Amino acid sequence: MILIVMISGYHEKEGAAGSEAERTARLWARSVAVSSSLRSEQAARAANMTSKQFTREEISKWKSENKTDTVFIIDNVVYDVTKFLDEHPGGHEVLQNVAGKDASEDFDDVGHSLDAKDLMQKYKVGEIVESERVYAQKRQISWEDNKQENDSSFTSSWKFPVLLGIVVTLLYSYLFG
Ligand code: HEM
After folding, report:
1. Do the interacting molecules here have an ipTM over 0.90?
2. CA angle, residues 8, 12, 17, in degrees to nearest 5
3. Ligand 1 pocket at CB < 6 A
4. Distance CA 117, CA 111 (A)
5. Which residue's CA lies nearest to atom 5 of ligand 1?
6. Nearest protein CA to atom 35 of ligand 1, as residue
7. pLDDT value, residue 64
8. What is the atom index within ligand 1 of the atom nearest the CA of 98?
9. Which is the closest atom of ligand 1 to the Cα of 97?
10. Distance between CA 102 and CA 55 in Å, rounded?
11. pLDDT digits over 120-153, tens only?
């Protein structure tokens, strides 16, 4: 009898401890859910924040009106690199030469690293208005095109070495055979 009372007492304690643990877990899960929903709200708000919109004319005017500012467009994004001129590893002249213009091609021609692309975010001041955006084909695509062109050319196909082999064999047997 004593044993039964002891066992039931133990179970009661365990049950109490279990529900305590459950409550803590529930509270923890709720706080995680709240903080993650807050974070996703913040992210959504950041994504919805519209950056300043410029026309291409405004950017070229910016250059003529503020002679000391170096502002240009790369892939429909407007950058003000005035404070970056002296730090640019490619020198300040190249940046000043494209001020007021669309520098997308010049930027791509250099083959800037991912680090450079990360760094660019610091100098972003806005975007080009939707109606004036241009979406140029990227380098990889044109490389694929070139590859196809080369592949279809006669000298790079398998026919050329085979034909050359036949001609050389015929010539050899004609001369020395
Ligand atoms: C916000 C815009 C830009 C940023 C943050 C930037 C950043 C950099 C960085 C970090 C490098 C070192 C190499 C690398 O990491 O790729 C570099 C090199 C260079 N950049 Fe830029 N750049 C910008 C725009 C431009 C533009 C518009 C041009 C051309 C008009 C240009 C021309 C060059 C050249 C010629 C080099 C030297 C490449 C070499 O020595 O191999 N950059 N730039």
Report:
1. yes
2. 145
3. 79, 81, 88-90, 94-95, 98, 103, 106-107, 110, 112-113, 115-116, 119-120, 123
4. 10
5. 120
6. 90
7. 80
8. 30
9. 30
10. 12
11. 999 999 999 999 999 977 655 555 555 555 555 6
Name the amino acid, one letter, at 19.
S
Q: How far is the CA of 146 from the centre of ligand 1 (A)?
A: 26
Query: 53-132 — its CATH code?
Result: 3.10.120.10
- Res 43 pLDDT > 70: no
Question: How close is the Cα of 88 to the center of ligand 1, in Å?
Answer: 6
71-74, strands of its sheet edge to edge? 53-54, 124-128, 77-80, 71-74
Under DSSP, the state recorded for 129 is -
pLDDT tens profile 61-105: 987 887 789 999 999 999 999 999 999 999 999 999 999 999 999
**pLDDT score, position 5:** 41
Q: Where are the domains of the chain?
A: 1-49, 53-132, 139-176
